[in-house]
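Running this now, will post back.
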Amino acid sequence: MCCLLSHETGDLPAGREAHHPMHDTDGRTGRRFGLPTATALVMGNIIGGGIFLLPASVAPFGTVSLLAFGVLTIGAIALALVFGRLAERFPHTGGPYVYAREAFGDFAGFLSAWSYWTMTWVSNAALAVAGVGYFHVLTGSAASKGSDLVVALLMLWLPALANLAGTRWVGAVQMISTVLKFVPLFFVAVVGIFFFDPSNLGSFTEGGGSWTGGLSASAAILLYSYVGVESAAMSAGEVRDPERNVGRASVLGTIGAAVVYLLGTLAVFGTVAHDKLVKSTAPFSDAVDAMFGGEWGGTLIALAAVVSIVGALNGWTLMSAQAPYAAAKDGLFPAAFGKKRRGVPTAGVLAAAVLATLLTVINYTTGAGGVFEILVLITTFSATVPYLLATAAQVYFLLTGERDKVHAGRMTRDMILALGGFGFSFWLVAGAGYAAVYQGALFLFAGIIVYVWMLSLIHIDVYKRQSTCGWRPAARRASGPAPRRRRRRRPLRRSRRPRCTPDRLIQLIQLTRWAG
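Update: finished.
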């Protein structure tokens, strides 16, 4: 085993060895997601339920909010390109976690995985709660705590069951839901052109403020519209030909979401009177009613919203298991998270579903809405940590000039994209607000105790496995007269093997965990 260790990792320090290809498959299922499915995963995760309220949310700032959308789209595409470049070098499940760990070591990788994992299951609970309102609009049923809880739990567990069925089901559900939610939104955007009335737009800046102030204010609301751009990179181990398809899916999915965002918002701005839009609670429904009359638009948009949220939950449930899976393979998360079944990390899916369920039950039964709001606020900061570390990792690889990680002909372009992606990620942090950054940082640092616990388990394994390489601490000679010299026997010739040290033993443990 020591020879295997030296062959695989050489003299790298503990925790910095190259990622093993066994990270990505369980040996039975292979990779399932082609480019269309990976693109649908990105687009479906970006477009959740928030798009159906966005036009009304930014209408008070005027049409300058459309400019804010354009600026954010450029930043999101830059971030997507950075993930594509990084996936060319490290086409493994875990995405931002893998990049942070390769560049900055285990601790940075753990912080990335921890923050991303907490963001996913809390966001899933928030999506399920948001979906309950659209479900009542669709069915016309009355709201009650009992029925609302049942509907929210169904929205959580149906996507979880699809994930547990395997990557084929995940891909199928994601493709169908993306098409079903894209069609009505794109319909409103295209048909809205024929009913567009410029007099409905209002002024460029509302309230008499400067355009820069309106741009910043509307951007603060829109900043998290593109969270999910990393979805293909996070699931790179399940994507066919990830070196090529991850980058393509990230960019195509981001552009597709941007088209829906921009055209849909513009159509609503042009078909609904501005004074009515500012007070609207269902802007897309109002747009359909303004175009065709009647009140059937509310039902159509509610159906699209429910499908959109279920599809987003399907994709985000998979995301909630990927970062812990990759971290568990490196010994930084409990080993149960590192096992796959039908191509899906089942323990991660179940853990995220259970935690989201607990949070949803707390929200509906105890009346502790403040706890729910605080956790949702934390996710606005937690989502940015993996982005910052991943883009910083790309800058690190470019500045260090490692030949196996940097393409010389693309050095300048990649550096511009990396810095642009880092700036966009930093803007996300600033837009989260003081409360989100403060509480999110506390929650992030709380994960340090988990890291220390996992590190202690690794070192306990080290001393349990010392016999693997025959490593023993040197015996201390007792004081007194020198022992009687004995005749030395000529040792048998043995093959040379590297000296076993605690660092090498840690690497050995990680390699054996990778191999299952």
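Strands lie at 340-341, 344-345. More later if anyone needs it.
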